[in-house]
Every structure is written in structure tokens, then in C-alpha cells.
Amino acid sequence: MCAESPGESTTEPGPPLRVLCVDDNSDAADTTVELLCAVGFEARACYSGPAALALAETFHPGVCLLDLNMPGMDGDELALRLRPDPGAGPVVLVALTAMNDDNSRRRIAAAGFDLHLVKPVDPHQLVTVVDKLWHAWEARQKPAADAKAVQ
């Protein structure tokens, strides 16, 4: 798990990006969190959909990495419950799963995921993707925030 004290993001000054990693395989979730914390993100792991929903209420992640096949609540249901409104946070939902067939890709699209990464993901690629997704989302939000400030 990540230390409680937030670090600096690899490219962005100020508070680090918060990442929630949800996987019923605790080793996979914990390893991903350790990697993300090592490069400056603030990351937390959960091992079930209900635990992720509870943590998201207080942690307010900017990116969620979700496994699809989990007992009880699968990743697609979790994605729909984390972001019932496309304009609401968490801002970026990433399916991080070993599944890569046509049916899985349809499930991922229907649940509103922003991206699908297939396990095993190269650690460097994962860090790069999370950072780029976050910056792309921030760039899309800046014009809307600037317009509100003018009003």
C-alpha cells in the first residue's frame, strides 16, 4: 500500500493524482498501487466493488483501474456505479483485465470505460497511460472552468 503522505506527481505540481485500483487479486492490486506511488501518484487498492464504492466517496480518485471479473460486483457494474453521470467523477475509468475478446470489448464500451488495458501491462506503459489520460482530461476541463470564471 501507498504511504499516507502524498508525494508530487511526475509531471504536475501540486497535489498528486489519486488513483484507485480495484482487483480481487490483492497481489495484482497492491503491486499496481506500489508502482503508482513510487512515481508520485497517490494510489489506493480495493479488492471488491462494494469496498471501492465506499472508498471512492472519501478518496475521490481521478483515475480508477478496474478489473472486470470479480465476485459479487463485476468491474462493469462498478464502473456504472462509480460514474452514473458521464460528467461526474471519477474522471477516468480504465478496464485493466486479461479479457480481450469481442464480447469483453463490448462490455467495456457499454459500461463507459475510457480505456481498456490488457493484463499483463508493462509497468512503464501503465504509468505513461495514467499520466496522459489525466492530463488529457484536465485539458478538456480547463475551457469549461475558464468559461465559468468569466461569467
From TrEMBL:
Residues the record lists as 4-aspartylphosphate modifications: D67
InterPro entries, per the entry: Bact_response_regulator, CheY-like_superfamily, Sig_transdc_resp-reg_receiver
Keyword Phosphoprotein set for record: yes
Keywords, in A-Z order: Phosphoprotein
Pfam families to which the protein is assigned, alphabetical: Response_reg
Domain spans labelled Response regulatory: 18-134
PANTHER family recorded: RESPONSE REGULATORY DOMAIN-CONTAINING PROTEIN, STRESS RESPONSE REGULATOR PROTEIN 1
Protein name: Response regulator
